[in-house]
Amino acid sequence: MSTTKAVLRSIKNVTNGYSAAQVLVRNATSNDPSGPTVAQMADVANHTFDRGEFLEIMDIIDRRLNDKGKYWRHVAKSLTLLDYLVRYGSEDVVIWGKDNVYVIKTLREFQATDSVGQDQGAIVRVKARELSDLLNDDERLRQEREAASKKRGRRRRRF
Amino acid sequence: MFGLSRIGTDISTSVKKACSSAETAPKRKHVRACILYTWDSKSSRPFWESIKLLPIQDNEIQVFKALITMHKVCQEGHPSALVGGYRNIPWIESLGRYRGNESPYGRLIHAYAAYLVQKLRFHHDHRGFNGTFEYKEYVSLTAVSDPNEGYQNILDLEDLQDSLDDFGKLVLAAATHNHGNECMVSALVPQIAESYGIYKFQVSMLRAMYRSSDAPEALEPLKERFLGQYHRLYDFYADCSAIRYLTSLITIPRLPFEPPNLTAADDEDGPDAR
Fold first, then answer.
1. Inter-chain contact A133–B1, Cβ cutoff 8 Å?
2. Residues of chain B that touch chain A, judged by Cβ-Cβ distance less than 8 Å
3. A·B CB contacts under 8 A
């Protein structure tokens, strides 16, 4: 099942003319039950340092964040990815996040029930609350980004 | 540049769907679409225009849901939503006048409209507060530099908190009487957020006043009233915590067991439930 979906997604990537960076985001925030992996997120984070690709990436994330309840995984995964990008991505992501904080804030009351009637919105609500708190706290955000850049430097040296 | 896809969605459709005639909570996704619309377009005029055009006058459930939607948009929407709301006060008042007491919704609508009008007037008189009264340092600073204005600010906030408290009790009573009716209970969601925002603001503002004031006796009446409100708010949140629909949807703030010490320094706030 998930393989057919993955094939369908790769076809859509071509027919809708998504760029390479956008395909990365779409794969990281797909409807698969697993992921996004750290490798996927780190990949996207590296692409946010390119000005043109940054805009393309945020465009897809914005669309995913506003998906309907049925695709709660899109929303949850985009929040995970955005949280990672705010820490590890370019400074532009932080500026984008602050400008669009209302998009995230309004997800704090997100509601979704799956076909079995189980509440799946809770994960989105928690993630949205944490991310909007982080974006509102300049001091903590600065510390998190410093710690992240140190970690990144260490990883680079090791390889 | 961003959100072009969202601007494409029609605001009047979202408003219509949020205020449907079904006796359920206004659907979050439609309310959210209204809120996002005010931010994306940085204007609330289309929202107010389309909600005024809705043919809801003959259906009390729709009127009630429209009031909830307006309240949410005023809270979370672009600041211009509050300004737009102030301009439409006569219309909101007319919504409240229109029904008598013959149904459970009649009284709620009447009380809700009155509360919304009071809230909008407050925001008009005290710029600098946002819709959910989220704490902003500079407002309490300006209050301290002018003690008279600060006194008036806190007094007005306490008036608002009192009305909110009365209205909350009314909704709770109606909801328990109607077996946890989701449509009524959903009106508590914006109330909880708002009362907690006001509470936090009162605490930090009163503390700042106590620190800078030379005559703490003058603040006693404010403190007395605040303590009374603290106890009622504590009970209100306890009652709300018993409603499963609410606890699954939002985190209900937990106030400290003892009322906060207003003369202490601004550090111990107790467990922050946000």
1. no
2. 1-3, 5-6, 27-29, 32, 35-36, 39, 76, 78, 189, 248-251, 274
3. 46
CB contact at 8 A, B62 and B19: yes
A147: its two tokens: 């710690």
Which member of B2, B249, B251 has the closest CB to residue A62? B2
Determine, for residues A102 and B2 on separate chains, whether the beta-carbon distance falls below 8 Å. Answer: no
ipTM for the predicted complex: 0.84
Question: Tens digits of per-residue pLDDT, A32-79?
Answer: 888 789 999 999 999 999 988 999 999 999 999 998 888 899 999 999
